[in-house]
Design a protein that fits this description.
Layout: H1 9-19, H2 28-41, E1 45-51, E2 55-62, E3 68-70, H3 75-82, E4 86-88, H4 101-104, E5 111-118, E6 124-132, H5 140-166, E7 175-176, H6 177-194, E8 198-205, H7 208-215, H8 217-232, E9 240-245, E10 248-254, H9 258-274, E11 277-279, E12 282-284, E13 288-294, H10 302-318, E14 324-326
Parallel strand pairs: 7-9, 13-14
Antiparallel strand pairs: 1-2, 1-6, 2-3, 4-5, 5-6, 8-10, 8-13, 9-10, 11-12
Helix pairs in contact: 2-5, 7-8
Length: 333
């Protein structure tokens, strides 16, 4: 039997996406909470489950061999549809679940207790659930305890969101200057310690003021968002792209020498050059100018590298824009 959908499903999914919890890295705070649930309720399994459009994904899970399941077989999908605490003392005795693959097969769920987790905006993101392979009942005290732990989980979600917002550019959704500086300090320190190469790309949208003046700031905002997305598709997972102000972006490239940085910058330039940006009835083409600098042995701080990359970027502007210039002092690595 398929779980029903909440009445606010579309906006609920938008809200879930906005949290950026889905597919996020493991978090000790969430893991400590699920381990605490496992211990307090003496159950084999506990999870923070997020119910996406077609799957449930576990932000944290203990005792479960799965990272995600189809939404069609998710007991938590029923919980968020009901909107309240759902307790199944014995899944074999419940018509909805007696033939469920997660009941008749691994992890052989016989007992389930799940409570919806809400975002600070009031939408049901998923559940805090406990599970066991044998039937059981919950005491009144256990029900109160689980509801208290749900409040702790919701507080962790809000803390996660606030932490993400502090290092995220509100317009484009990519990282901001603060995050770039934090990661850059770590990268410079690691490069100094290990001798691994490190490069930085600084790029700026060409003639951006003219776009704002001619088409309005709304079109300019669309251009910033489109270019950020375009660049994101080209970089590796360890790389860091940040909007540091206005139309200027920085890209941090750990373990990357000059050749690798130049190759990437040329791909980014070409991708932006080929892109068509649509904002309502307005269609525009944009270009960017790129400057590259490489960490030298004397560099002990990101500022000196950024200064050289910035100078190279302005050299690209003076040379005609829509091009890549590398700091001439950089060696090849």
């Amino acid at each position: 039997m398929l779980p029903p959908q909440p009445m606010d499903e579309n906006v609920r999914l938008d809200d879930l996406k906005c949290t950026q919890l889905l597919n996020s890295a493991p978090c000790e705070s969430f893991d400590n909470l699920t381990r605490l649930c496992q211990h307090l309720f003496n159950v084999e399994m506990a999870a923070v489950s997020l119910v996406d459009a077609e799957r449930q994904w576990f932000k944290s899970a203990v005792g479960l061999p799965l990272r995600e399941t189809s939404r069609d077989v998710s007991l938590c999908a029923w919980t968020i549809a009901n909107g309240d605490h759902m307790i199944i003392n014995d899944t074999y005795q419940d018509e909805r679940f007696k033939d469920n693959p997660l009941v008749v097969g691994p992890p052989f769920i016989r007992f389930y207790s799940g409570i919806p987790l809400h975002s600070k905006r009031g939408f049901r993101l998923g559940t805090l659930c406990i599970l066991h392979s044998k039937p059981r009942k919950m005491t009144a005290e256990e029900i109160i305890t689980q509801r208290f732990l749900v409040k702790q989980a919701e507080a962790l979600i809000e803390k996660y969101e606030l932490g993400r917002l502090a290092v995220t550019d509100s317009l484009t959704g990519i990282h901001n200057r603060r995050y770039f500086n934090e990661r850059a300090r770590e990268a410079v320190s690691a490069s100094t310690r290990t001798g691994a190469p490190l490069s930085v790309i600084v790029f700026d949208i060409d003639d951006f003021k003219r776009v704002n003046d001619s088409h309005g700031h709304s079109v300019g905002d669309h251009a910033l968002i489109a270019i950020a997305k375009c660049v994101q598709t080209q970089i590796r997972k360890p790389d860091v792209i940040s909007r540091v102000g206005g139309e200027e972006f920085h890209v941090l490239l750990p373990d990357t020498g000059v050749n690798g940085a130049q190759n990437l910058a040329n791909r980014l330039r070409e991708a932006v050059h080929k892109a068509t940006i649509v904002a309502g009835d307005t269609t525009i083409k944009m270009t960017c100018s790129f400057g590259i600098a490489y960490k030298e042995p004397a560099d002990t701080h990101i500022d000196s590298i950024l200064q050289r990359a910035d100078a190279a970027m302005y050299a690209a502007k003076r040379a005609g824009k829509d091009r890549v210039v590398c700091d001439i002092r950089a060696g090849v690595a």
